[in-house]
C-alpha cells in the first residue's frame, strides 16, 4: 500500500437531503471498490495502490453527476510514498479506542 487518499465531494445543490443522497452514492461507490475505507463527517479516506486510488477519485466526479449533481467541488489530499504510508488504523486507532462512535 503506497497511498492514502482523502476525498471530499461537495455537490452544487442547495437542498441538504439532496446533498446527502448524492454524497451517499459516492461513498457507496468508494466502499464497493474493496479498499480500506474510513468515512468521517467531512471526507472519506481510502488506502491502497496509488493508481487505483486515483481511478476512484476520478470516478467520484462521474458518480455524483449521474446521481444528479449539476456540478461539484472535490477536495483531495494524497499521502504517497512508494515505500509505504501510515495506514488509516495507525493514524486513528489511538483516538477511537473504546469508542465505537469514533467520537472523543
CATH architecture: 2-Layer Sandwich
Order of strands across the widest beta sheet? 2-3-1-4
- Rounded mean pLDDT is 94
- Helix fraction, binned, reads 40-55%
β-strand number: 4
CATH class: Alpha Beta
* Straight-line N-to-C gap: 28 Å
**Helix/sheet category:** alpha+beta
Q: Output the number of helix runs.
A: 3
Major sheet details:
4 strands, antiparallel
DSSP strand (E) fraction? 25-35%
What coarse outline follows from CA principal-axis ratios?
globular
Low-confidence stretches: none
CATH topology description: Alpha-Beta Plaits
| Count of structural domains | 1
Write down the secondary-structure element order: EHEEHEH
CA gyration radius, whole angstroms: 14 Å
Topology diagram in text:
Layout: E1 3-11, H1 16-32, E2 36-39, E3 44-48, H2 50-66, E4 72-80, H3 88-96
Antiparallel strand pairs: 1-3, 1-4, 2-3
Helix pairs in contact: 1-2
Walkthrough of the structure:
The chain is α+β, with helices and mostly antiparallel strands. The protein has a single domain (3-80), classed as Alpha-Beta Plaits (2-Layer Sandwich). Helices cover 41% and strands 26% of the residues. The chain has helices at 16-32, 50-66, 88-96, and strands spanning 3-11, 36-39, 44-48, 72-80. A four-stranded antiparallel sheet has the order 2-3-1-4. The protein is globular, with a radius of gyration of 14 Å.
